Amino acid sequence: MGRKGASQSLILFFLFAFLACVKGHPNYKDALAKSILFFQGQRSGKLPVNQEIAWRSDSGLTDGSEASVDLQGGYYDGGDNVKFNFPMAFTTTMLSWSAIEYAKRLGPQLEPTRVAIRWATDYLLKCSNASPGKLYVGVGEPNADHKCWQRPEDMTTPRSVFSVSSDKPGSDVAAETAAALAAASMVFRKVDPAYSKLLLETSKKVWKFAIDYRGSYSDSLGPAVCPFYCSYSGYKDELLWGAAWLFTATKDTSYIDFLKSLGADDKSDIFSWDNKYAGARVLLSKQALINKAIPFEQFNKQAEEFMCSILPNLPSTTTEYTPGGLMYKLDNVNLQYVTSITFLLTTYAKYMASSRHTFTCGSTLVTPSAIRNLAKKQVDYILGENPLKMSYMVGYGERFPNKVHHRGSSMPSTKSHSTTMGCEDGFEPYFKSSSPNPNVLVGAIVGGPNKGDAFSDDRNDYSQSESATYINAAIVGPLAYLAGSNKY
């Protein structure tokens, strides 16, 4: 054999050895692309010509008209047709954090991520700037909407407009909106400086509103947001989160002073659209670990306490795991907590690795690889490495949920069924049908299995079969981390 032949054989040997090493790992790049594509299926407003989820059409084109303002755009949060700004703003913050923290690892998906963020921020800017002294926080009558099974393109339910103001405060939703706009301003800083400046200026204005008029939007708006997206954890966590993001975006030390004055010592073993304590602490821990900034050491300590409450098989853990190894926090749409916490795991592991940092949970030494491995286990479970061998991301893998609790996905599109369908027309035969949804909501991650790893794929069981923007937004970062890494 000549030198060239020997060289080719050696290359083939290492190629096959490499493939053998990675065999069994999910296709993270495919899952990443699909997780971002999902947001097109949730769009409200006038859809662009390059819309890839082709079974969706324009909807909500008169949103805001009740208040004589333009509130077109934004996202429907899950399988319904209401725009709830509280979870939508959190979704935007998490997508932006992914784009900031994992920009290089996102690769060709960075621009689609920016597009998904901008679809939300264009709407949030309207909500923040439409009327002086008001922040619009939702469109659609939730109680009426939940009595219907109707495509968003056909909506006949009231498109009521809800807002907070000085006499109806909403520090939680305002501070979350400020966080979303501040984070997004960093995403667009280099690619669109003028837009970035507008986002940051608006963030500061909304932030001032949040701290000047203290109160929970749940108390101000009642049944317009409860029990759907009540601020169960109060608004102090959003103030912490908002200040953390504004400091990150501006490096203005006045936000550090505010963080100190807030006295947010609440312990938390969860992270979600409602409870932001852990997220704020991990975000701020970067200043302690990477920049060695002393004022942030307390937040790093709290971030480590959070990690100790999540890691399995430790005396400090307060987190349950299913027999198959899935983190289990709550029965209702559990995967929302799994993806959000997994984002914090990969991100904190990244900070630890960069600073060569370790810590202890009691007598147990915790390394970046221990946290990274747990994060990978959660992502892999979602993508099909579980007792049912089922992917919980729609359209990914050979077996995935096909009866998603989602109005548009479960009914024929307006292109195949042009006749308008009324409020209750979708219940029979579509909602109650045992057939798969006619439209595939590609990339959607559903609520997931129960604590025994069982999953019914039942459209009627929203806790297991409904998808949501905030579930997907949180997994973009971990998928990018795994897709762009040779370290598993």
TrEMBL record:
Instruction: List, alphabetically, the InterPro entries matched.
Output: 6-hairpin_glycosidase_sf, 6hp_glycosidase-like_sf, Glyco_hydro_9, Glyco_hydro_9_Asp/Glu_AS, Glyco_hydro_9_His_AS
The record's GO molecular-function terms, alphabetically, read:
cellulase activity
Superkingdom of this protein's organism:
Eukaryota
Q: Which organism is it from?
A: Kingdonia uniflora
A Pfam family assignment: Glyco_hydro_9
- Where in the sequence is the active site? H405, D457, E466
Output this protein's name.
Endoglucanase
Q: Does the keyword Disulfide bond apply?
A: no
Which PROSITE patterns is this protein grouped with?
GH9_2, GH9_3, PROKAR_LIPOPROTEIN
